Structure formats: structure tokens, C-alpha cells
Amino acid sequence: MIARPAGLTRAAVPGYSLALAVLILGPLLGPGHLLLRDAVSTPRSFLTDSALGLSGAAARAVPQDAATAVLSAVVDGGLVVKAILLAALWAAGWGAARMVTVLLPTVGLPGRLLASTVMVWNPYVAERLLQGHWSLLTGYAALPWIVVAACRIRQSSSRDLLGWAPLALSLAAAGLTPTGAVLASLLALTLLALPGPRRGRHVTAGLLLALVASAPWLTATALSGAGAQGSDPSGVAAFAARAEPGLGTIGSLAGLGGIWNADAVPGSRTTPWALVGTALLLALVVCGLPALWRRRRNPVIVTLAVFAAAAVILPALGATAWGLGAGEWAVVHVPGYGLLRDAQKWVASAAPFYALAAAAGVTTIARLARRVFTPERRGRERTAAAAAVAIAAVLVSLPDLAWGVGGALRPVHYPDSWRQVAGLLAGADGEVAVLPAGTFRRFTYTGSAPVLDPAPRMLPLDVPQSGRLLVGSSEPGPASGYTDIDGEDGRADMIDTVLRSGGSAADLADLGVGWVLVEHGTPGLPGNQDLLDTLDRVHDDEYLTLYRVPAEPAPRDAATGARIALVAAHLAWAALLAGGALGCVLGVRRDHRIRADQT
Hints:
By secondary structure, the protein is of the alpha+beta class.
């Protein structure tokens, strides 16, 4: 048997993971911007108060919006989002293989490639891509790297500061969104708290890193007051985990699926193939359980197993009658709980254990299928063949994840109207009220799926939005089957009321509104035309009409101290991200130098 060059072996996993990421994102990587459901990328976004999290709505896109605003001043924002998304999927697969190397050092390259496949090619990734949760996938990708980093910290000396750099980078990357920060912090702190030397110091240092990684959204939640006033309890049932065909809720979650939105699901998961795909995935996990049981003295493996079980069982319980009742109480009485109401998000915590179990089960699969292979084949060849069959099974279990989740992920091209309107608003005063009322749009140039209104990110002024949602139907507008979920920003609701009920231009100005933008070609509740006729029309075409309010808008009441605190929190997060990346580079160079000296 010809041995592979060491360099080729080391490059196999990252190269394979990158190939999977490209195969998934495919058409999205062309010219244009990502605009699908909750995902909004624009050529340029701006560092407004809303981008910092200083608004009445919950801080669900902090520090994501501020980061893209800063980066889009240098590079097109669409390219920024695509690069982050590609890097997240790449890192997820690569990290799973590194985790296997650390926890199961006897598992060879075939098992590591299988772990990468399981981590990247599963319903969770597909459904979150279709829902537009690109920034959440950075937190998902950080999970296996956090396992690797925590294991290294537990084994390193107390003076090895560079050993903390991977954990700092992973937590900061996960902190791009609040849910990612919570997922990563819980896993990191639990692993650091496992029995071992210097456990107290490790937990303290890990807690400090986690707080810095979460500083932007924690600060925004504290200052905006959105978390303190609670969220609409009807959102708990609307965002509960959902059963897929033939699986039930717990079966869907165990298969890493079950997102609340039935429209954000690959076609294969809406048919009986969902049962087949889930069975294939869980069969691979089950094959690895005996090998992991033999390693049950390793507390890290046990912890990952507990996280996986909790990630499936707790959201399933949350979808029961008493679980919904508990959630409805929590969103009203627990500050910030509304940020966590999408219960299926937490299934991400099961993925690292699934990947580990699949890798551990390769030898079991080879042993069970030994009769299929010729007797002349050696053990390694049988293992490689078994891993290839297992990888094929994972890919076949979700065939339409390939090439943009069946073509649903594709770049959108904005009409030039948006650039023209943004130019007219540059340097202007006041905020921009938007019509039709509501948070989501369906333009002719975006396809059939609803998309988050791009105006708050496209325009250089703040765009008040209440966060009100209509969930439960694929068609916007009044319809049976909808759950109407109130938003958190009361001032934005007041602006909507003025626009729809026929208030005056002075009423808009008193609320801080200096402009009104009407977006054409999308369903929704229109504004009062009599009010619009009293405003000054400054731009009008088939896509957008912009009006100027002929009165001086009242200045926003936001305190300078709040802005300073939010900027400081964002800078602390950015410093953690940059410092972690620099520390990783220095640590790799140091390790290479040590290995060179030893040889």
C-alpha cells in the first residue's frame, strides 16, 4: 500500500470541507446579494443607531449589523456576507475533523472526513440557510473548535496564554449573533468546568471571554429596554419546533431538523424521504455509540453526549402544552428571553456529538459489512470503503442540500432605485418611515419567498421597525392561519398608526420622522394617500417613491452615553475577534517552530 504524503493528508480535510461548502452554496457565490427571508445583504450598510442595537426592538442582529456596516465601507456588503457564510461552512467541517483528531486519535482520515460530512451536510444547515440565518451558522461552526480549544486549555500549562487564543476566536466568531454566543458560551464554560487542575481559573477566564463575546447584544438589551418589557407570548407557539413527515417532533429534532417555518425546508424533508434520511443519519450515530461507550471515562465525550440529548429533548418538551406555557411565561417575565424563542436553534448543540459518533462508528460499519468486501482487502482498505459508503449515505439522506439547497439560494440584484434613494438621504436629518407596513417584503426581483425589508440596512438613516411578524402562512396580508406576533418597539408602532390612519406631517415630525419611503411591487398594508399627498415627493419610479416631511423632525432622545457604551461593547468584541485570530497565528507558528526543533 502506497503511503500518502504527510502534507497531502493534512490538506485533505480542509480541502474536502471547502469543497462541501462550495457545493452547498454554489449559485450564491456568483455576482449579486443574499436576500432570502431573514438574510439581508446590501452593497453598503451604515452604522446607524439601529445597527448598534440602540432601538426599541430586540437586539437580534447585534453585532452582525454593525460589523457588516463597517466592512461594507471597504468591500461590497454582499461579498462580506458570502465570505462569512462560506468560511462558516468550511470551518464547521474542518472543526469536526479536528475534534475527532483530539478526542479519537486512533480514528484515521476516512473517519475524519465522515465527521466533516455529518457536520456540514444535515437538515439543520439546510433549514437555517433557507431561513436566512447565515450569522447563526458562524456560531454553529464554532462548536467543534470550542471542544478542541477547551481540551487544549485543560491539558496546557497555566502560563500558555496563546493556548487561549482559539477559544477567544471561537467565542467571538459565535458572538456574531446572540444565539450563537449563548450556544458557544454554554459549551465552553461546561467543558472548562469539568474536573481537572486549575478548574476555577479556567472557568473564570472562560466566563470573562464569554462576556466580552456577548457584550454587544447584552449591552443593547440592557440599554434599549426591549428585553425588559418582554415579548409577545404568542411567538412561543409560532416558533416552536415542528414535526416533519413520519417523524413526529422529537424524531425531527433527533434528525437535526424540525424548524418552525414549514416553507424553509428542503423539498426532500417534506416527503417520506425525511424518515429515510433521518434513519440513515441516526444509524451512523448508533454505530459509533459502542466505541464512545468504551471511552466513557473521558468527561468531554460524556459532556457532548449530554448536550446532544438535551438539544433534542428540551425543544421537544418545549413544543408540548406545558412547555409552551412555560415559554409564554418566560418571554413576558425573563428579560431577553424573547431572543431565544426559536427553540429548534438549540439542536445545533447535538451536531458535534453526531459527528464524533459517526467517526467512531466507521470501524463498526466496516465490521458489519465485511462480507461485502473481498477477503484480499486489508483492514485500512475496508475502513476507507466503509467510510465512503457512510459519506454517500449522508449525502443521499439530504440530496437537495446541494447547489444552493435545490437552487433556493441565489444572488439577488437590487434595482438602481435603492442606490439613488440612499444617495438622496446621505447627510439628511430625521428617520425614514417605510410603507407598506410590516417587516417582510416580496419583490418581483427576489422570488417567491418573503424577505426581510432591506431598507434598514440599505439606507444611511435609521428606519424604525417594530418587529411585528405574521407567522403561519406563505402569503402576506390578512389570512386565516396567521399568528400575529407583536413587536417590541412601541414608537415604531405609533409611526405605523400615523401613516395608516391619516395623521399629519406634523405628527410624523414629532415622532422624529423626516422621510417616508414607499416600496412598490410588494404586498402589504398601504399608507393613507391623503397624508402622503401633503408630503414633498423627491424620488419616484416603479420600485420606490421617497417623500420628504415638510417639517423639522424632532431629534432622537437617545443618550450619548448609551451610544458610547454600545460602541465600546462592539470594540471589545472586535478586539477579542482580532486578538484571538492573531493569537492563533502566533500559536501555529510557535508549534511549527517547536516541531522543527524536535526533528
